[in-house]
Design brief:
The protein is mainly beta. Helices cover 14% and strands 41% of the residues. It has three domains: 1-143, 24 nucleotide stem-loop, u2 snrnp hairpin iv. U2 a', Chain A (Alpha-Beta Horseshoe); 222-344; 359-489, Nuclear Transport Factor 2, Chain: A. A hairpin with a 2-residue loop joins strand 42 and strand 43 (459-472). 32% of the residues are buried. The chain binds 2-acetamido-2-deoxy-beta-D-glucopyranose (6 copies).
Length: 490
């Protein structure tokens, strides 16, 4: 009896020792620690590797971790082998390991969160077998290609700030139930998402040289297409988005195609894409409804939305191209006048020839008409400022609002405070923009924006800008006076 009892006790002791080695949480400090828990095969509790002084850790026989696996702040660590690992029930975090070059987790199929961040020398990640992951984040590594993420679904995916990453392919990803952000990787990086159908949150594609998402049907929150270098952006089967679409600062973008898009839940904002000169018939061929607004600023020559029937709030087009606003207006008859703005910027040198009637549309005619009328005025105004500053005084309305370099004043002070001090200063006009306050009519006045240089004696030239609001002189047709003057040295 006694012997049996002792044997039982001993067995009990061994069993308890086993529990201690393979559960409860462990901080790895050496290769020996690593091989010891590796022998457990299954570990319950968190495994952390932090600030260890070894170069290599091999967890070859560790198959499952019920807990988190955290490798962080290890300056000397170069490689971590996890050749047997199939499952991490919690998070797998590799963070701030300065010299870490590679990680192999070839058999890992399931992890709740995979976060690989700030390992600046990491250029090898073998994670080919992950089929289940909720949150995946890969940022600030030296990885050059990412083709090994094989999961079909995730909650969120962020791939950012990997300066060498030129190719991102997610062959199996069908759905992101929260957000998808691919941004600020190598400027030549190409993104391919061949089977992605749904993003149930926000999508951000930034700094990409090409984007391929041929199956994407739905983006629930906003779509951000920002600072990409792609020439063409195409979403051939996207049907709707419940939020905004932003297409901003894509410097090479020439063509956009949202071939099946029917509804935009909120706004369509297209801005600062210098080569996007047309919103073509095939850009938004099926788009019927926009829940908020269209705001399009750029060098547009033509704009077409063939099926658009509803924009809830407002439409604004501001073009520095040859857009014909009055022709464009006829496409949007469903909009009231007070929800419609279309304007043209024209930037012409003061001595430039703006009088080529054959290329003018109705609204640019108004602008150019204004330009030719203001041209003489501006010419004289600056000539006078250079030679006899006091002469410009009579061009100001008696109640003109005047501000020179932030000093507000009335016409009565202009002479003593400014004009009398301008002797010897020459004004050179480089460009002026002229804009009728009312699109179709210059009689309500014009905004003139002037950029140029001041030359004064030994001083090298100094840039200035000046905004003048000119109003027709009611008693003398075709004469203007200055209602508002805001001048700044730059
Ligand atoms: C990164 O790890 C190093 C040790 O390798 C540590 O000194 C440093 O504070 C860590 N940086 C951050 C941001 O945690
Ligand atoms: C056109 O004018 C708008 C404001 O009126 C401005 O925001 C935009 O930058 C201008 N575009 C160009 C190309 O000058
Ligand atoms: C064209 O401009 C003139 C003003 O110059 C305006 O009276 C006319 O209504 C405009 N035409 C259209 C179709 O907007
Ligand atoms: C006027 O514009 C048309 C069309 O852009 C162009 O063919 C023509 O050469 C221009 N004429 C002048 C005098 O600049
Ligand atoms: C410039 O000065 C002349 C007088 O020398 C004056 O008739 C003219 O109105 C002035 N023009 C402007 C734009 O200041
Ligand atoms: C420019 O010349 C004036 C006198 O004419 C002198 O007082 C001033 O110091 C000179 N400025 C520079 C930058 O040389």
């Amino acid at each position: 009896m006694i012997i049996i009892s002792i044997a039982y006790c001993m067995f009990g002791v061994i069993f308890v020792t086993g529990q201690n080695a393979c559960s409860g949480g462990i901080a790895i400090n050496s290769e020996r620690d690593a091989s010891r828990i590796s022998g457990c095969q299954r570990y319950s509790g968190d495994v952390t590797v932090s600030q260890v002084n070894v170069e290599k850790l091999d967890f070859g026989d560790l198959y499952e971790i019920y807990g988190n696996f955290i490798v962080s702040n290890n300056f000397n660590l170069k490689s971590v082998l996890l050749n047997g690992l199939t499952k991490v029930s919690g998070s797998m975090i590799l963070k701030n390991n300065t010299q870490l070059i590679g990680i192999a987790i070839p058999k890992l199929t399931s992890v709740t969160k995979l976060s690989v961040t700030n390992n600046p020398n990491l250029n090898y990640l073998n994670a080919d077998s992950i089929t289940s992951a909720d949150i995946v984040e890969i940022s600030q590594t030296s990885i050059q290609e990412l083709r090994s993420l094989m999961f079909k679904k995730c909650k969120s995916l962020e791939i950012s700030g990997n300066m060498n990453l030129k190719s991102i392919e997610l062959f199996n990803l069908v759905e992101a139930s929260q957000y998808l952000s691919i941004m600020d990787n190598n400027r030549q990086s190409k993104l391919s998402l061949p089977v992605l159908v749904t993003i149930n949150g926000k999508m951000t594609f930034k700094n990409l040289a090409s984007i391929s998402a041929p199956s994407l049907q739905k983006v629930v929150e906003s779509m951000n297409l920002i600072e990409n270098t792609a020439q063409e952006i195409e979403f051939p089967v996207l049907q709707n988005t419940r939020n905004n679409i932003f297409i901003i600062s894509n410097k090479n973008l020439e063509s956009i195609k949202f071939t099946k898009l029917r509804d935009i839940g909120s706004g369509l904002i297209i801005q600062n894409n210098p080569k996007l000169t047309t919103i073509a018939k095939d850009s938004f061929p099926e788009l019927q409804s926009i829940g908020d607004k269209i705001l399009a600023v750029g060098a547009f020559n033509s704009v077409e939305f063939p099926k658009l029937k509803n924009v809830d709030k407002a439409i604004t087009f501001q073009s520095s191209g040859k857009l014909d606003c009055s022709e464009l207006r006829t496409q949007f008859e469903f909009m009231d006048d007070n929800r419609w703005i279309c304007g043209i910027n024209s930037t012409k040198d003061i001595v430039g020839n703006n009088n080529n009637d054959s290329e003018k549309t109705n609204s640019t005619k108004v602008i150019n008409n204004a330009n030719s009328k203001t041209q003489d005025f501006i010419d004289l105004y600056y000539k006078n400022l250079s030679r006899k500053p006091q002469n410009v005084l009579k061009q100001y309305a008696d109640d003109a609002r005047i501000s020179w370099n932030g000093n507000g004043m009335q016409k009565t002070n202009l002479e003593t405070q400014i004009l009398s001090k301008l002797g010897g200063i020459r004004f050179e006009v480089m460009s002026h923009d002229c804009h009728a306050i009312n699109l179709h009519d210059i009689s309500n006045g014009m905004v003139v924006v002037v950029n140029g240089y001041l030359h004064s004696g030994n001083l090298s030239k100094q840039p200035f800008s000046q905004v003048l609001i000119l109003v027709n002189n009611p008693s003398k047709k075709n004469e203007f006076y200055i209602q508002d003057d805001c001048f700044r040295y730059v």
